[in-house]
Amino acid sequence: MSAPPNALPRPAQELARLEQAWEPPQGWRLLSAVNNTYIGLFYIGAALLFLVLGGILALLMRTQLAVPENDLVDYDLYNQLFTMHGSVMMFLFAVPVIEAIAILLLPAMLGARDLPFPRLSAYAFWAYFVGGIVFFGTIFFDVAPDGGWFMYPPLTSYEHSPGLRADFWLLGIGFIEISAIAGAIEIVVGILRTRAPGMTLDKMPVYVWAMLVVGGMIIFAFPPVILATALLELERAFHWPFFLAERGGDPLLWQHLFWLFGHPDVYIIFLPGAGLVSMIVATMARTPLVGYEWVVLALVATGFISFALWVHHMFATGMPHLTTSFFSAASMAVAIPTGIQVFAWLATLRRGQVQKATPTWFVLGFFGTFVLGGLTGVMLAVAPYDWQVHDSYFVVAHLHYVLIGGMVFPVFAAIYYWAPFVSGKPLSERMGKWACALMFIGLNLAFFPMHIVGLSGMPRRVWTYSDTLGWEQWNMLSSVGAFVLAAGFGVAFLDLLLHLRPKGKVDSNPWDAGTLEWLPLDNYGVRSIPHVTSRDPLWDRPQLREEVERGEHFLPGTLTGDRETLVTSAIDARPQYVLRLPGPSWLPLLAGLGTAAFFLFLTVKSLVASALGGVIALVSIFMWLWQSEPAPSARLYDVGGGIKLPDHMTGSRSHSWWAMVVLLLVDATIFSCLVFAYCYFWTVSAAWPPPPFGFPDVTATVACIASWTVSATVLFLAHRAFGRSAPRVPLIVPIALGTAFAWIAFVLAFRALAQTDVRPDQHAYGAVLYTLLSWQGLHVVLLTLMGGYTIARAIAGRASAMRRNAFDNTRLMWYYAAVQSALGCLVVHAPRMM
Amino acid sequence: MSEMRLPSALHAAPGSGAELLSELGLVLYCGAGIIFIVVVALALHATFAKPSPAGTRAWIVGGGIVFPLLTLFLLLNYTLAVGSAVAALESGTALQLLLDCFGIDAQKRIPPPSPGTMRVHVIGKQWWWEVRYEIVRGDTSTAVLANELHLPVGEPVELLLTTTDVIHSFWVPSLAGKVDMIPGRTNRLILRANTPGLYRGQCAEYCGGQHALMALYVKSQPRREFETWLQRQARSVTRPDDAFLLAGYEAFFKGTCPDCHTVRGTPATGKSGPDLTHVGSRYSLAAGTLRNHVGTMAGWIAGAQDIKPGNAMPDSEIYTGRELRALAAWLGSLE
Amino acid sequence: MSLRALIAAATLVLTARQSSSDVPHRITGDVQRGQQTIVRLECGVCHVIPGIPGARGRVGPSLAAYRRNVYIAGRYPNLPEVLVRFVRDAPSLAPDTAMPSIAMSEREARDIAAYLYSLE
């Protein structure tokens, strides 16, 4: 074993300076904190709050259904309750809580001091929290959505759902879309670029792998629902008929887009749970996870397969037999990677001496419930069987076994397991046991009878039922079970309230775990960033704790006086540069509030207030970006081990470049879904373009593409010239010119469309054409804003050959927008070639 | 309605697709039960037994790959066979082989529709079902009813499922799996029951406010009885002779009833509500919500919004008590 | 028809009033069976009836605390024999009523009346 990279003794002021740089804001200023340990806890707390709120809605429903023909709530309230319960649990609890846990745990597991974009996390949290509270509040004003969490049109379109209810759903989902994407950027870039030196991909903890896969899945799974919600809002607000059959639309398009998101979303929720279980099982059994490679492979495989399953939510829609067979097979296939993980956990438990403590009980509870949910999942994958149980209470049973068993149990196992990581000591064993037992009994009592009542013909989403159908005793059991389950949650929350006291400085490893998050920690994270040589460093090198705490490893202090962490290469984790991180700021909070206000006031159609919110959000975001990319110093810093690193990097080594690429992947996926929508309409129509409409004008289309080419070329030339002359010349003129050509291109595209005579509210053809155009227009506006910002930086002297990430990111977006717009114009003409 | 079978996939009608599906279900429950018990036993054993180096990758390969691959391969083929049998697919050689392999004989299979197969159009509406029989092929104008379907015993009947508003789903658990009714599309489902019986179904796709109160009845009856029934359903009605019923007839036209309802043989030709020509013969009112007798009829006419709030039928508040009774009696007499 | 009913009712009133005030509501019906019959005949379509699930109709009067009602249909004393008859065949007592004559046996009518008198 080689000597640690830094020699002792450490300079006298090193620790004090490090502490000072990471000093958390005090008192009410805590709200301006951006540090992952604070945002992570806020985030988890908010997600658990929504779990409680969603649970209360469930208890109301179970009380209503406890007896037949009950009058506790009427149909109208009941429909709001089940819609809100599903939406709150999926969008405000499940997805946020997995991102929240990642934000809290990942840096410590990776040996980083923080994630690469702390303010982005803070912004995502505030937008989510404020938006979520407003969304939930609609239930008190009788304007909560009532179209189901799946919001199938045409029921949810303007004709059958007038009023604001459905709009509030779309609004609520808007927030979670923003925070999910922001979280995914943070998680993916954080995992790939801020790992401790030496932590190559094959040495990452399994949970980190799970989150990497999940981050990737969010990038590709959320765009379909982002597009779907945008289309539905366009249909509701402007009557663009995407989903209305009588004007060329198709309600099934919504189902495709929704489940293209919805099914991966199930695995976005479950895989982190599986990752948590892998970590807990290995520690509690005190032995490395059996079959690490298999488990990682299984995670990746699940990620891929989960995108090929969505149609199993649509088996009853009258699909061709061949289609159902394919999706049936794919849905069954996903059982294999899950089976691999289950048997890896079983083998690990068998091999080790298992510690009997609350996390273990929750893991056993997970086995006892999730496996059953998985097995009923295979039943649902059987298309003919699904024809019977689809949309019956059988599915309600299945999904709660999978989601509570597969995700909530692991999350509570994790809460009990990582509580010492937060507060230095474990929660109450006694209360933990009670919570686990009550939850396990409650879950089974509440949901097992639902299998039977579903098979007995009880459909989902009914506010009442007759006493002549043999359903009443099962429903009563379910209702009792729901309250037992709630009691279990109650005990766990009481334990958290009584015993969890988050601390800045923690030195605790009660389960004798092997991964980095159990090193001594303070507000700055680890004292020095360890050099990692194995998967379970604390098991393999017992002396590592002392070495790290004494500052013998990398970056033992602050080199620039700012908050810092190490950026390493994506595959083999070689140190590349010292990333200077931003400190506490009110801007993310302001931007989050502004964003929430913008959407909220837009929904209730008070345009002035909405615009005000939008301006606040934009200005805050611009001010925060303005402070990013601080002036690089020309010197190299010694981080230890003879490694000297710069404090800045440009191009593809920069962490911001990676974030931009992730964002463009999201953008490109949204665009692909829009192209899919166009092709979908084309294939389901008898004639295309639908008579009497024609294709857009070819000349104008060609001119538009030419204009985009000029626009992008100008930016490319500017890039080539950058660094050879003073930065202002190659920035200001070309960007202004590029912007002008982008606008010209947009006007040309508009003209090409205007000649077709089709208007967006006449036919799905017009609607999708105008949406493609609007998407192009949105990018032109975005380029104008980004270009203006880049020019402003150049004028203010904040751009140079060294300091060019703002320009490079703008340039990337520029190329992307040009290619996307050209493709968008071309794809419209594709049917001509058929 | 004491003759009604429980609307349950667990009580499938003999000869129906649901019967094949409930056999499939049995296979699934047994398989899942065994796997579940084994995994939980392994988990408990692994946790509480003394540590052993036996926990190896062989577990992963055996339990996580080999076993599920084999099981799922068999299951997939079996379910393809069952699927084709209940979906009334034309069986090619390969499919026939599969059916033979799993012992699904020709009698159990739901036959594909032929030119002689009777066709019934079922149209989902918020929140009731319109049913139109093709007495002459292609003609759906005569035998029109609501929330009720009759089948001749032992004969496959092809349903053409559509909707005029939102998505609904046709589900009679004792007879067959569910099929969605989607705007802009026509879906098909073939029903068959080999014994007489009365079955209940309910909308399975959330379709708005009163989705919970959208049920229907399916009656399978001997061929002759069925024919008599269908002929009667196709008949028009005449002005009643009885003074009290005549008062009811007149009350019908005094109100807004004819704007929405058709009674064939009278000037009432409204289209948006159920055809009432033989409403007296039906098992239920308000799509399976109420039993059908003169009391519920009067209550439904005067208080439709109490019984099924939000539905398209208004409370009729213009009638005197006697008129209401007469109206209910006249409608009840339309058998 | 209704005159005879009135005479019958009056006779009942005269004989019954001689004993305690509770006696008029004594009836030889089974409360529990009455409840089941009310559910089966769906009287709740028109009436609010305590103890009957889903009985929220407003077409007819609420039957809450029925025992304490003084008149049936606003004109006949609330007596068992009158009630039994009214339940089965309201128009025979009140030709202008909206409540139809409903097919049921004498015993079923008695059970229903017994149930209604159990509502205090």
Give the fraction of residues assigned to helices of chain A: 55-70%
Largest sheet of chain B: 5 strands, mixed
**SSE pattern of chain B:** HHHEEEEEEEEEEHHHEEHH
The fourth-level CATH homologous superfamily of the largest domain in chain B is Cupredoxins -  blue copper proteins
Regions of chain B with pLDDT < 50 over 5+ consecutive residues?
none
Tell me the total number of β-strands of chain A.
4
Runs of chain A in which pLDDT lies below 50 for 5 or more consecutive residues are: none
The CATH architecture name of the largest domain in chain A reads Up-down Bundle
Strand order of the largest sheet of chain B: 3-2-1-5-8
- Oligomeric nature of the chains: heterotrimer
For this structure, the CATH topology of the largest domain in chain A is Cytochrome C Oxidase, Chain A
Helix and strand composition category of chain B:
alpha+beta
Number of H- or I-type helical stretches of chain A: 24
Strand content of chain A: under 5%
The coarse overall form of chain A would be: globular
Distance between the termini of chain A: 66 Å
Number of spatially distinct domains of chain B: 3
The gyration radius over C-alpha positions of chain B equals 25 Å
Describe the structure.
The complex is a heterotrimer of chains A (834), B (335) and C (120). Chain A is an all-alpha fold and 834 residues long. Chain A is built from 24 helices and four strands. Chain B has three domains: 85 residues; 114 residues, Cupredoxins -  blue copper proteins (Immunoglobulin-like); 91 residues, Immunoglobulin-like (Sandwich), CATH 2.60.40.420. In chain B, the strands form four sheets. Chain B has a five-stranded mixed sheet, with helices on one face. In chain B, strands 4-10-9 form a three-stranded mixed sheet, covered by helices on one side. In chain B, β6 and β7 form a beta hairpin. In chain B, α2 packs across α3. Chain B is elongated. Chain B starts with 16 loop residues before the first helix and ends with a helix. Chain C has four helices and two strands; from the N terminus they run ααββαα. In chain C, a hairpin with a 3-residue loop joins β1 and β2. Chains in contact: A-B, A-C, B-C. Chains A and B meet through α3, α9, α10, α11 and α12 of A and α1 and α2 of B.
